[in-house]
Specification:
Largest interface: A-B, 29 and 36 residues
Number of domains of chain A: 3
Radius of gyration of chain A: 30 Å
Strand content of chain B: under 5%
Number of domains of chain B: 1
Largest sheet of chain A: 5 strands, antiparallel
Helix content of chain A: 40-55%
Oligomer: heterodimer
Helix content of chain B: 55-70%
CATH architecture of chain B: Up-down Bundle
Shape of chain A: elongated
CATH superfamily of chain B: Amino acid/polyamine transporter I
Structural class of chain B: mainly alpha
Chain lengths: 504, 338
């Protein structure tokens, strides 16, 4: 076989790596069934797709076939690179095909499909059964801008985009550490989605990293396109209403979490990073807490915890009071409540359900519609229909206040996943309160807490610092402590030496 | 198998000891000892500390065999059903007079069933839920401060041996659950010290908790009122006048129910766990049957007369299981070693 391509041998014989390629090549070509590479067969391989471009090219050592997806590759940039590589080949440079943007591999259909589908331009040399891959992908995409769901008052206003490379750049720009490890894994037998994960080697718990890698390894053959799909495989309890992995589109949030020993995962074409392991209280922290002053940061953190309690329990509490325990209200207030609900034909639970479903409809509609119309829906739904419902005597004024307060409280939670979980959770509590009043709420609260104690994120306790009980970190749930105070470096959920700086 | 940190250990012990009795022990104690009850409780505190001290000293020798362990399981089963019967009787009076008791009972035991089919780490951390409730309980209690009559503390007559001894017997209700020290002590991490200061701190918290409750109700109600007030703490809170809410006791009931459910769950956990140390791990079917048995038995016991009888008996049973049996097991192990 070597004898059949002397010119190729001339260029490559000095390189050890190339010799390896050749030895592989010999093995590959050992049989007489040498794959036939023609324009026709290649077109068939890619199902005659309209955006699959295939051109004959001249090369110093013979003819080649250039192919790429016009929708993925940038032909202008590819031409520039090919010119440079051709020049290197003419000058007989060692490893002429190996540059920062290109590589030479033995030809295989599998490798060809993988390269072309990932946006590379490929030149196939039929004679030598080699292929040159040139990385010149079409870089069209949006520029990093502040994510709409995670806006902050103070601090950086950049956000992740659909390109993992740009996302990694954003993180590296903020974290100048050599121990920041970036690894990737191709997942999906057909989709070949690249999952890129990163962690700080000296801080992250080795066992947690190993577990994470094992979990990724387990899903290697499953076709996964984004982080949302892989979430099911990484979570310990899929049916739990609580997210066990934190999604963010903010580079600063990823950096802060990496500094706490956590792992961040990016999927190709997804602007979200997935962070694990996390605790329940991680979802209630915002970068604003750390960028603002101590007292202000603490105040808002406390406000978010109160909003969590209100978002889950307020409608249930109102139903319990109105249905079972109206005697707890002061007499003046009790009179007003009775006056307000006397005219309503339905029980408080139905009132609450009507309004809650109504609020959810407005929210869902305003998300799906274009922005200007979405705002209109909010006004029409919230003000006009809300007022009409009260006037029609379907629900009481007080119930409108309760449901509106609950809705506002649930939107205070800074992460969208937890926000949705909380919104769903208030329904079972409302039913429990309608059945048994405070007793039902107590039972519901116990079940919820036991569930939270059982959950884990990458086998790390989800309800830390309550489990395992760490009284020294209790205050950090509610307050933001000053950077000047000494604290322990968090290494996921165990602690190493003391240091100054940011405390989670 | 699980391990406990020192805080987890003491928190579990605190819930075992307080969960079943903190609402009701004052009434019977004051009824028999009158104004002497607070002096008596100081004496009881010393006895309790001595008992904890001895338990700590000899805990390594406490290795009960399957027979004794099963006796303890029966005893805890008895404590669970008597406590559940009492809770449901109280709930029926205060909250749900028309709801069948088996329904409320089933819901409470259902929570325990859910917890006991989870991993042990969930159960051993369950008492943590009580921590945020304690400040509210103390706050509610201190709202009664302006209405306390300090002269109700006197006169003291310690020469009245009969009432003192009777009181000493009833104060034993606050010791119920102390035997858990011996069962849980071996799970405390080896590098965590229990003896000395930590034990003293626990004893102080235990003492302050019960003593505060006792003093508040003693100073709030006149002595002859205790015959009619079975849950003085609840009545004390009911009489509180605050601007934002009319019935403070209902909030307290919410706290107490949660506290009680946790206590029941960890008692059942101990029954299952101690059985597991001698036999293979019980299946979920066994755990479900155990819970069903608890519901049926406690429903049967949830009447006023039956509760009175079993509460009397529970103190005798407690003395046997927290003094007699530990002493016998420890002494027998000592002889065996010699």
């Amino acid at each position: 076989m070597v004898g059949k391509s002397p010119s190729m041998f001339f260029f490559l014989h000095k390189s050890v790596q190339w010799r390896r390629y050749f030895s592989r090549e010999v093995k590959y070509m050992g049989s007489d069934n040498k794959p036939v590479i023609s324009k026709k067969s290649l077109k068939q391989l890619f199902y005659n797709s309209m955006d699959f471009v295939i051109i004959d090219v001249e090369w110093p050592m013979g003819k080649g076939i250039l192919c790429y997806y016009s929708s993925l590759a940038d032909p202008t940039e590819a031409n520039k690179q090919i010119d440079i590589i051709r020049q290197r080949a003419l000058e007989k440079t060692n490893n002429w095909g190996k540059t920062a943007a290109s590589d030479v591999k033995p030809y295989s259909e599998e490798e060809l499909v993988k390269s072309v589908c990932s946006g590379q331009t490929v030149i196939i040399f039929e004679e030598s059964q080699l292929m040159l891959t040139v990385s010149a992908p079409n870089t069209s995409g949006r520029t990093p801008s502040e994510p709409e769901t995670e806006q902050v008052v103070r601090g950086p206003h950049d956000g992740f985009v659909e390109s993992t490379q740009i996302n990694l750049t954003l993180i590296r720009q903020k974290l100048h550490r050599k121990d920041l490890v970036v690894k990737s894994m191709e997942i999906g037998a057909d989709t070949s989605t690249t999952m890129t994960y990163l962690y700080i080697d000296t801080i992250a718990d080795k066992d947690v990293v190993k577990l994470f890698e094992t979990k990724l390894e387990d899903v290697r053959d499953i076709n996964i396109l984004n982080t949302g799909e892989i979430e099911d495989y990484l979570e310990g309890s899929v049916y739990s209403p609580f997210p066990q992995l934190l999604y963010t589109e903010r580079p600063d949030r990823v950096v802060f979490n990496l500094m706490e020993g956590k792992i961040a995962l990016f999927a190709d074409n997804s602007p979200s990073a997935m962070i694990a392991p996390v605790t329940f209280f991680s979802f209630f922290q915002s970068p604003d807490d750390f960028n603002g002053r101590v007292i202000i940061g603490s105040f808002f953190r406390l406000l978010r915890i109160i909003s969590l309690v209100m978002a889950i329990f307020l409608p249930a509490f109102y139903i319990a009071v109105v249905s079972f325990h109206s005697e707890i209200l002061p007499i003046e207030l009790s009179k007003k409540v009775k006056l307000a609900i006397n005219e309503i034909p339905y029980r408080p639970i139905f009132e609450a359900f009507i309004l809650e479903v109504f609020i959810e409809l407005i929210r869902e509609a305003s998300i799906r519609l274009p922005k200007p119309i979405g705002q209109t829906i909010g006004v029409v739904g919230g003000l006009i229909i809300g007022d009409a419902i009260v006037s029609a005597g379907l629900v009481s004024n007080l119930m409108v206040i309760v449901v509106a307060l609950t809705a506002i409280s649930s939107f205070v939670v800074p992460t969208a996943e937890m926000n949705m979980s909380i919104r769903i959770l208030r329904f079972p509590f409302m039913i429990a309160a309608a059945l048994f009043g405070f007793f039902g709420m107590a039972i519901g609260m116990m079940i919820l807490t036991i569930h939270l104690l059982t959950l884990s994120s990458l086998k790390q306790p989800y309800f830390a610092p309550f489990i395992p009980l760490d009284t020294t970190r209790f205050m950090d749930i509610f307050l933001r402590s000053p950077y000047t105070k000494f604290h322990k470096q968090q290494k996921t959920f165990t602690f190493i030496s003391k240091k100054k700086g940011r405390k989670s | 198998m699980f391990t406990l940190s020192r805080i987890q250990f003491f928190l579990l012990l605190f819930v075992f000891q307080t969960g079943t009795v903190f609402l009701s022990f004052q009434s019977r104690l004051i009824d028999v000892s009158g104004t002497n009850s607070w002096v008596l409780f100081i004496l009881a505190g010393l006895l309790h500390y001595l008992q904890l001290f001895l338990f700590e000293k000899f805990h390594k020798r406490f290795n009960p065999g399957p027979f004794v362990s099963h006796l303890y399981i029966v005893y805890w089963f008895f404590i669970i059903v008597s406590f559940l019967a009492y809770i449901n009787y109280t709930i029926a009076i205060w909250l749900f007079p028309n709801t069948p008791q088996i329904v409320t009972m089933a819901f409470m035991v259902g929570v325990s069933l859910y917890a006991n089919t989870r991993k042990p780490e969930t159960l051993i951390n369950l008492p943590v839920i009580i921590l945020p409730m304690i400040p509210f309980f103390v706050l509610f209690l201190f709202m009664a401060l302006p209405e306390l009559v300090w002269t109700y503390l006197f006169p003291i007559d310690v020469t009245d041996y009969k009432s003192m001894l009777k009181g000493l017997f009833f104060v034993q209700a606050t010791f119920i659950g102390v035997e858990m020290f011996l069962f849980l002590r071996k799970y405390v991490k080896a590098d965590e010290k229990v003896n000395g200061k930590p034990l003293f701190i626990y004893q102080s918290i235990w003492f302050l908790f019960f003593f505060t409750g006792l003093i508040f109700v003693l100073l709030f109600f006149p002595l002859n009122g205790f015959k009619f007030v079975t849950e003085p703490l609840l009545y004390l809170l009911k009489f509180q006048k605050v601007t934002f809410v009319e019935r403070l006791d209902l909030f307290f009931l919410f706290i107490w129910i949660s506290w009680s459910i946790i206590t029941i769950s960890i008692y059942i956990f101990m029954c299952i766990h101690v059985r597991k140390t001698h036999y293979k791990s019980p299946s979920n079917r066994f755990i479900i049957l155990f819970h069903v048995l608890i519901v049926i038995t406690s429903t049967f016991l949830a009447t006023k007369d039956r509760i009175e009888i079993i509460r009397q008996v529970s103190i005798y049973a407690h003395i046997v299981f927290s003094v007699f049996f530990p002493a016998v097991v420890i002494l027998m192990n000592r002889r065996g070693k010699q």
